[in-house]
Give the backbone structure.
Amino acid sequence: MEPDDLQKLSAGERVRLTTTVGERLTAKVLFVDERRSELIVDVLSTSMPERYAEMGGLSPKEAYLIPFTYIAGVEPCENKT
């Protein structure tokens, strides 16, 4: 899956993202905004937890917005309920 395929993602899908700053994260897609070229996700795990420390750490109650331009790579991930 290439970054150009981001529009094809659907809500509920789990993916592994690599960002342009080298962060690797596993996320559950909540919404794909094709018009604004953004993903809204639940971040399930990350290689850079310090990035979220200022926001109180990762929380299942928080959703994160990720612009498509910030995503360098995307891989499918096993979907677990």
